[in-house]
Amino acid sequence: MAEYEAGKPADEEEPACCDCCISCENKMISLLDDLGIKSKKHVLHATDPAYNKTMDPCDLTCRNDTDGNFPYFTLIMSAIHIGFYIYFVATDPTHNIAGFNKNILCSPFIYSPYHREEVWRFFTYSFTHSGICHITFNLLFQIGIGSLLEMVHGSWDVIRIYGAGALAGGLTAGIISPGKLLVGASGGDYALIFGYLGNMILNWDSMKNPFTKYMRLIFLLLFIGSDLFNAIFGSLASSGVSCGAHLGGAIVGLGVSMACLKNFNSDNDWEKNASYVLMALSGGFVLFALGWQIFSPTFDKYDEVNPPCYLFSKCEQYATNCSSFSNL
C-alpha cells in the first residue's frame, strides 16, 4: 500500500508496506486516536504539523522519521529478566520457583546494604526476582505499559525512563529500608507506569476519545491509591515489599518522562509549567538520594561489618568469613 505525504508530489512514493497493513490500519485507527497519535491516513488530512512525524503501529518499518517504533527494548529487557530467573532456578539445588533461592541471594546482582561499594548492584537488582509470582506481575506491567510508550515515543525515551527509575529505586530503597536486601524490577516498572502518567499530562488534549482517556486516568489513580494503601499497610505489617523502590521509580519516572516524552501539542502553558516543576522535583530528589547514600551515617554499621551469617552463611564466598551481626 503506497501513500503520500500532504503536499508531496505523487512521483515521490514512500516504500511500500506489507499487505497486512491494510487491515491492520482499519483495526488500529481508533486505538491510535486514543493514544493521541495519528496514522498515515490521518496525516494526509492533519492540520496540526506536530502530528506529521508520529508513529503508525501498522507501519513499523516504512518510515525512518517517526518517534515511535516496535517495542524492542521492552521485549529484550523482559527476555533478560526471564533468562536470569530461569538460570537461577535451574542452578538451584532445590529448583525453587516460588521463593527467594540461594543462588539469587549469593549472586553479585541483588542490592545489599553490606555490598554498597559494588555500585552496579543499585541497578542490577532489577534483573532478579524472588519467585514466579513476583516476576510474572512485574513483566505484565513492564510489557503492557512499556510497549505502549515505546510504540508512541520510541526506544530511547523508554530506556531513559526505565533505567533512571531502576537506579532511583535502588537509591531510595536504601533510604526507606536501609537494612533490607532488594530484588525485582519494580523500580523500573513504576517508572514506566508513572511515565505513562507523564504522557497523559503532556498529551491530554491530544487524546480525542474522552471515555478511554478518562478510563486510563481512573485506572492509574486507582493503581496509585491501592499502592499507597499497600505501602502503609505493609509498613505496619512488616511486609517484604520495598516501598522505597516503588517510590523512587515513580518520582523519577514521572520527572524523566516530562523531560523526554514528546508533547504533540506544545501550545498549552500549563503543560509546559507542569513539566518544568516535575522535572525540577525529580532532579532534586535524585540529588538528595545520592547525597544520602554517600554521606548518611545510617549505613556505617553495615559498611563496617562482613555480610552477616544469618543471611549469607550458605554462600560459599562468605561461609568462613561472615559476621555475627544481626539486623533483626
Provide keyphrases for this structure.
single chain; Rhomboid-like fold; 2 domains; 13 helices; 328 residues; transmembrane; Rhomboid-like_sf; 0% strand; rhomboid protease; transmembrane helix; disordered N terminus; mainly alpha; globular
Describe this entry's structure for a reader.
With 328 residues, this protein is mostly helical. It has two domains: 1-66, no CATH class; 72-303, Up-down Bundle (Rhomboid-like fold). Helices cover 57% and strands 0% of the residues. The model is unreliable at 1-29 and 38-65 (pLDDT under 50).
Number of helices: 13
Radius of gyration: 23 Å
The major β-sheet equals: none
Structural domain count? 2
The stretches of 5 or more residues where confidence is low (pLDDT under 50) are 1-29, 38-65
* Average pLDDT reading: 78
DSSP strand content: under 5%
Name the CATH superfamily classification of the largest domain.
Answer: Rhomboid-like
CATH topology of the largest domain: Rhomboid-like fold
Quote the distance from N terminus to C terminus. 66 Å
Q: State the CATH architecture of the largest domain.
A: Up-down Bundle
Identify the CATH class of the largest domain. Mainly Alpha
- Helix/strand structural class: mainly alpha
Portion in helices? 55-70%
Strands, count: 0
Shape: globular
Order of helices and strands: HHHHHHHHHHHHH
Secondary structure elements and pairings:
Elements: H1 20-34, H2 40-43, H3 72-90, H4 102-105, H5 121-124, H6 132-153, H7 155-176, H8 186-203, H9 210-236, H10 243-260, H11 269-295, H12 300-303, H13 309-312
